Amino acid sequence: MERSVALELRGVTKTFGKVIANNNVDLTVYAGEILSILGENGCGKTTLMNMISGIYFPDRGHMFVKGEEVVIRSPKDAFDHKIGMIHQHFKLVDVFSASENIVLGIDDGNKYSLKDVNNRVLEISERYGFNIDPKKKIYEMSVSEKQTVEIIKVLYRGADILILDEPTAVLTPQETERLFNVLRRMRDDGKAIIIITHKLHEVLSVSDRVAVLRRGEHIATVETAGTNESELTEMMVGKKISLNIERPEPKEPKDRLIVKNVNCTNSDGIKILDNISFTARSGEILGIAGIAGSGQRELLESIAGLQHLDSGEIMYHNPKNDEEVNLRDRTPLQIRDLGVRLSFVPEDRLGMGLVGNMDIIDNMMLRSYKKGHSMFLNRKAPKNLAKEIIESLEIATPNATTPVRRLSGGNVQKVLVGREIASAPSVLMAAYPVRGLDIGSSYTIYKLLNEQKARGVAVIFVGEDLDVLVELCDKIIVLASGKVTGIVDARTTTKEEIGLLMTKSTSVSEDALKTENSAKEDGCNG
Amino acid sequence: MAKVKTEKVHEPLFHIVKRDRMPLWQSISIRLGSIVCALAFCALICYIVIDVKPAEFFETMFDGVFGSERRIWKMIKDLAVLLCISLAVTPAFKMRFWNIGAEGQVLMSCLASVACVIYFGGKMSNWMLLVCMALASVIMGAIWAVIPAVFKAKWDTNETLFTLMMNYVATSLVSFFLIVWVPSGSSTLGELDYGHLPNIYNRYLVLVLVVAAITVAMYIYLNYCKHGYEISVVGESQKTACYIGINVKKVVIRTLIVSGALCGIAGFLIVSALDHSVTTASAGGQGFTAIMVSWLAKFNPIIMVATSFLIVFLQQGVNQVATDCNISNAFPNIIVGIILFFVIGCEFFINYKIMFRGKEASKK
User: Fold this and answer.
1) Is beta strand A192-197 parallel, antiparallel or unpaired with respect to A209-214?
2) Based on the structure, what is the number of domains in chain B?
3) Could you tell me if A477 and A289 are in contact, meaning their C-beta atoms sit under 8 angstroms apart?
4) A-B interface: how many C-beta pairs under 8 angstroms?
5) Does residue B10 lie in a domain region?
6) B248 exposure class (CB count in 10 Å sphere: 0-12, 13-18, 19+)
């Protein structure tokens, strides 16, 4: 079958300072196919797509849409060439309805009638199998509904080339499957779809062809049918790599941190933690799963002494003297003074865990600078620690006096985790510790967590990749809207079970189940 | 396959790209280059507007600053006062506390010093009086700075507006006390007879030595003290500060006390070494100029010596040009404005580079 070219890139190059984000990339996308762009974090996937959608302007190279050379200087230019991008972070007005957001910014000279818009939105939804209420306000929507609005927004403008940046990062397994069904229908309708991702099994299940990028270079484009996970990984990383995560058996686990009936409301009066109870045991990795914003951050911050609680107890069992202390409503300093060795790797690495403009030595000092009575700083110990961590964790940095914001995401995380582990914790909390990390660094982090586990530390691991949670953890707590919807044994559970628990007891769950069923039917028919 | 139709395609002439990092010598030469460009541009303007030849313009400028020993000392004393106030605002700005109230803090401490002279002058030894003045000034400056800081820490009020308003309160208080102290109704306080800093070599040397000591002390405080470290962390990220257990409120209040106290020293020096009096213009806008000096030096006290020299040199030099050529007082301000525009504008070229596409496109 003759396929028509929807989009072609030739020799596209983009640099940021010394960093070459994209080097001489050639890429062809045909109408009626799903092309995955696969690559590790920082390999230039998003930069490339941002150039196609007009956010960046390439330093060199040519772009062709349907055979004509085009210059795309702004997102508006991109729309004029029927290119639409769905960003990882949604760009919607919260107080507007779905339809209002969809027509926002369209200037076609026609009279604006919300009724017509609603009908047109429904028409699009029906055609591709979306499930959406055009009149619903954005702030009432779940993450997957918001994503649907973003996709319809692009379709409404008549886009023929759709780019989705990491669309599954925020979705449950069920929602992901639903999204893929929609994408398949759009493909069958003749649209060209580009999907950016770093999850291999998704690539294999949804795309027709895969383009692999590594360090800004286009390595190869292969047919999905003729490849497999290990081959793709090798192309992505540049060498063979084992994809198994170890899970040693816990040794003599004892209760270390007991969280009892914890409640918390935020400044808007919304309940973010609702009667949460669980126990973290020494020598175990306790996983926390849930859709982003289900209370994971608040839970960890309340244990670390950064979040005020309405009620409940956080009991810490000190392994040294068998005493129990309540950590509730204590400041981080008081917690340290109680002799509780609590380490916390927060989600926001450069905004909270580290100071981006300071060098590695000064960042090491964050935890220890208060020691001693002198009014002057002692930089000797942090300097040695910095050297030690750079060596043992193989941090790629010119020297210890480089500001950490200049390091790559993986190295930044190694600095942070290294510092937190250096204080020999008895409880280690890590929120999304591998987010944005390349495969090699991710496995280093898993290894470090396992080492801590072997040392008898109670590890609490908040993760988003369910595959990893299921492989790495001993026990998994599932949070949904601030409630614990289930505590499962990671050795026996499945991704699907966790996925269902993640949407349990929320308003979306019923819809999710309904479409889940219809999606299954679709799958049978197709 | 697609056909290349270059003639149809309109590419932008240039686009702007962020630089990674530039070697030190390159950034210094860009900065020096910008000053040269600025001076050349100013000479051109002078030539067009007031018909002064460029050579003559530069000669007069240098002559105004280095022409005689008296002029050199005037430059040094102005530099010392400006540097002192710049050092005072630095800890607050480094903490990202936008304190634009140095003007008021200096003015209030001048007022406190003069009050000491008026009420205790002649009743105690000169040394005792100087100690009283210094203490009163430091306390007054600290109070004037700590009020907005407490409000910021307790109720998260906007410190920029608050410190600005405190300047007006300070000016009004000075006017009020001038009416009280000057019975004739002229509201002009003559030179006071007591509370003069001792003359060693000349009357400026003590002032210069004090400021030099403060410069070194501030450098050590910011870079080698726990306090300085806490200031940097709070300034870079309050979230990080909370996360590692720094009491942000305490640091904010403590830092503003330090900042205000240094403004107090500046006020004390102005009264005891230079003016021996107070007017509503005692601070002379230097509370605001100091912010620029501090920022241009990126909060490094040692570099601040150079940036305050730049500002003082410009002001004094261009004033000389204006006097010699007999033109309006506004002219020096225009020239200084132009030069600062160049100096600050060159930061753009340090952080970004401009890429022209024309050549590469035509090659293909």
Assistant:
1) unpaired
2) 1
3) yes
4) 99
5) no
6) middle
pLDDT in tens, B170-217: 999 999 999 999 888 777 888 888 888 888 878 889 999 999 999 999
Q: Is the pLDDT of residue A376 over 50?
A: yes
> For residues B4 and B348, what is the distance between their CA atoms, to the nearest angstrom?
36
E strand segments, A156-254: 161-165, 192-197, 209-214, 217-223
- Interhelix angle A439-454/A229-237, rounded to 10 degrees, is 100
Contacts of residue A47 in chain B, CB cutoff 8 Å?
none
Phi-psi region of A166 (alpha: psi -120 to 50; beta: other; left: phi over 0): left
Residues spanned by the domain of B238:
83-320
Q: What residues of chain B lie within 8 A of the CB of A366, using their CB? A: 233, 240, 244
Q: Smallest CA–CA separation between A134 and chain B, in Å?
A: 38
> To 10 degrees, the CA torsion angle through A448, A450, A453, A454?
-100
Nearest to A67 among B3, B9, B236 (CB): B3
Confirm whether the ipTM is greater than 0.85. no
pLDDT digits (tens, 9 = 90+) for B136-173: 999 999 999 999 999 999 999 999 999 999 999 999 99
Per-residue tokens: B275: 């003016």
DSSP letters for A120-151: HHHHHHHHHT----TTSBGGGS-HHHHHHHHH
Asked if A365 and B229 come within 8 Å (Cβ–Cβ), the reply is yes
- The stretch B62-74 carries a mean pLDDT of 91
Q: Strands A217-223 and A209-214: what pairing?
A: antiparallel
Q: List, in order of start, the domains of chain A with CATH numbers.
A: 5-237 (3.40.50.300), 245-341+424-526 (3.40.50.300), 357-423 (no CATH)
Give A406's contacts in chain B (Cβ within 8 Å).
21
Q: How far apart are CA A473 and CA A453, in angstroms?
A: 10
Of the partner residues B9, B242, B355, the one whose CB lies closest to the CB of residue A306: B242
Distance of alpha carbon A333 from alpha carbon A342, whole angstroms: 11
**Chain-chain contact of A67 with B4 (C-beta, under 8 angstroms):** no
Tokens of B257: 């006390």
Would strands A217-223 and A255-265 be described as parallel, antiparallel, or unpaired? unpaired
- Output the six-digit token pair for B171: 């000016």
Q: Distance between CA A86 and CA A88 in Å, rounded? A: 7
The reply to whether B246 falls in a domain is yes
Give the three-class secondary structure for A115: helix
Interface of B with A (CB under 8 A): 1-6, 8-12, 15, 17-21, 224-229, 232-233, 236-237, 239-240, 242-245, 247, 355, 360, 364
Return the structure tokens found at B318.
């261009």
B79, B309 in Cβ contact below 8 A?
Answer: yes
B4 domain-assigned: no
Evaluate whether residue B325 is within a structural domain.
no
CA distance B180 to B203: 30
3-state helix, strand, coil in chain A (%, to 5): 35, 25, 35
Q: How many CB atoms lie within 10 A of CB B40?
A: 13
> Among residues A271, A145, A172, A261, which one has the least CA distance to residue A501?
A172
CB contact under 8 A, B240 and A369: no
